[in-house]
Design brief:
The complex is a heterodimer.
Chain A: H1 2-58, H2 63-66, E1 94-99, H3 109-126, E2 131-136, H4 138-146, E3 153-155, H5 161-180, H6 186-192, E4 207-215, E5 221-229, H7 241-248, E6 264-265, H8 269-345
Parallel strand pairs in A: 1-2, 1-4, 2-3
Antiparallel strand pairs in A: 4-5
Helix pairs in contact in A: 1-7, 1-8, 3-4, 5-8
Chain B: E1 5-11, E2 14-15, E3 33-35, E4 38-42, E5 45-49, E6 56-60, E7 63-69, E8 72-78, E9 81-85, E10 90-95, E11 98-100, H1 106-122, H2 131-151
Helix pairs in contact in B: 1-2
The chains are: A alpha/beta, B alpha+beta.
Membrane topology (chain B): Peripheral membrane protein
Organism (chain B): Enhygromyxa salina
Main location (chain B): membrane
């Protein structure tokens, strides 16, 4: 009977799908612990770095004047900045760093980021501002391309913690170049560098935002869109961060109190900022990547877990249907035989 | 016993286990160690920190961190980062990477160093602000630090 065979085939298909999803879920579970540890280790470093950066930035009287990477951080940006000749950008352009994954099958992980970016891009375009995008992870680039936003530069999403540091370094370098107006898009560089005297077209943005999945816990990832450049100045010590600091201080070390105590620093503020701000940017990207890696694995585990559950449920339903059909077939066959026998008798 | 200070080295990979001895197995995270003092490469030159240092903050450049722990002279290659001395006397070195002296792969590092030096010579005429030159210089500084840590 054709129908029975169809159902049997379907059960087979669902079973092999379940094998795959359950294997993926187990792999993700095994990777999750490693990714989570890496992220927590990195967070410790990130929190301390953020504390130092915050402490110094808060004590500046006029941050915008102190360093180009703080320009526009507090209050309106001064209108005079050097724009390279040939810069096609209007003022007010915004750059995005979009962090997604290389592979799918991880629930709403990538689409959440993509939707968020699309929403922001749409709002900015309506204001008549230019948008530039740097992507980390194939999924974000592919999505934005269909949306008509080609990435200026692309990086493969890291999966191991050793790769995170290197990728973060390169992305940070590009983000800072973009902000400083010295960024040369990959394709354009090769085209125009031969023509002597012709300045390479550069792209400049007045703000860089970082969009990534923040790993809240194993079942919750949330999309964050943080301003990366100009380096944001944290409000005050007492507001939000101490709680986060305290949570991390549970390792029994006498915590260096994050206070406003006057601290000596060397060399002067300007040079300190020269060193500090690039590191701050790099650390922020690093943290985002670590979070994204852990969040991806967690999202994949959750997604594959529920896919496995769904498959099991479906197999149950199909098996029930199969048995019912089979019984119906047997019954009707019996009826035919009995009917035939009765006909012969009479 | 002389007064001691607490030393802690943090990298994006987590806290560096300073108790670890050569050939030993990494143990659980036990927090900062207590040492009599530490030498490190600050932006303005090599500096030493002893107990009761004032609260202090300065950039760290790639180089070698030296301290004595359990009667052993220890050396670590560190990348660029920061030194923070807190009021409580905790010395924290935040650095992008750190390698213990015995973890340096001497042969590979040496050949990398030669290669980077050669590349730098090829770029000798480029501007000092050139992105490639900056990157090569940064790489060489880190390789230098590793070699110095490994060779004492």
């Amino acid at each position: 009977m054709a129908n029975l065979k169809e159902i049997r085939n379907r059960i087979g298909t669902v079973k092999s799908t379940r094998k795959i999803t359950s294997a993926m879920s187990r792999i993700a579970a095994a990777r999750l612990r490693r990714a989570q540890t890496a992220m927590e280790n990195a967070r410790q470093y990130g929190v301390r770095m953020a504390a130092i950066v915050g402490e110094i930035l808060r004590e500046l009287d006029d941050p915008a004047a102190m360093h180009p990477m703080l320009r526009g951080a507090g209050g309106p940006a001064p209108a005079t900045h050097l724009v390279m000749p040939g810069t096609p950008t209007k003022p007010g352009a915004v750059g995005f760093i979009v962090v997604t994954s290389e592979r799918g099958l991880c629930g709403g992980f990538n689409s959440a980021v993509n939707r968020q970016v699309q929403r922001e891009i749409k709002a900015l375009r309506e204001q008549g501002r230019d948008v530039h995008v740097l992507t980390v992870g194939r999924k974000g680039r592919a999505y934005l391309k269909t949306y008509g936003q080609v990435a200026l530069a692309h990086h493969v999403a890291p999966t191991k913690s050793e790769e995170v540091v290197d990728t973060a370094k390169r992305v940070a370098f590009e983000a800072m170049a973009l902000f400083a107006g010295t960024f040369t898009p990959e394709g354009a560089a090769a085209d125009t560098s031969d023509e002597a005297g012709e300045p390479k077209p550069t792209v400049k943005v007045d703000e860089v935002r970082l969009v990534f999945n923040y790993f809240r816990n194993v079942i919750t990832q949330e999309v964050r869109a943080d301003r990366l450049l100009p380096v944001p100045i944290p409000e005050s010590d007492e507001s939000g961060d101490p709680s986060k600091d305290q949570a991390k201080a549970g390792d029994g070390q006498p915590r260096a109190a994050v206070t406003n105590a006057i601290r000596a620093f060397e060399p002067d503020t300007k040079q300190l900022l020269d060193h500090l701000l690039p590191v701050a940017v790099e650390t922020a990207i690093q943290q985002a990547l670590y979070n994204s890696v852990a969040a991806e694995v967690a999202a994949r585990r959750t997604a594959m877990d529920s896919a496995t559950d769904n498959a099991t449920e479906l197999i149950g339903e199909l098996t029930l249907q199969y048995n019912r059909e089979r019984q119906a077939a047997i019954t009707s066959e019996l009826m035919e035989i009995i009917g035939g026998a009765e006909a012969l008798k009479s | 016993m002389a007064e001691l200070l607490q030393l802690d080295i943090l990298t994006p990979d987590g806290r560096v286990d300073l108790r670890l001895v050569e050939g030993g197995k990494p143990g659980s995270d036990q927090g900062p160690i207590e040492v009599e003092g530490v030498e490190l490469p600050a932006a303005l030159g090599e500096m030493g920190v002893r107990p009761r240092h004032i609260p202090f903050l300065t950039p760290v450049v790639p180089g070698v961190v030296r301290f004595r722990f359990n009667g052993d002279d220890r050396r670590l290659a560190v990348g660029s980062g920061f030194l923070e001395v807190s009021e409580a006397g905790v010395v924290t070195i935040l650095t992008e990477r750190a390698l213990r002296s015995w973890e340096v792969e001497l042969e590979a590092t040496r050949s990398d160093h030669e290669e980077v030096t050669r590349e730098l010579q090829e770029h000798a005429k480029a501007s000092i602000q050139d992105a490639t030159v900056l990157e090569l210089n940064a790489r060489r500084a880190w390789l230098d630090a590793q070699l110095r840590a490994a060779q004492g």
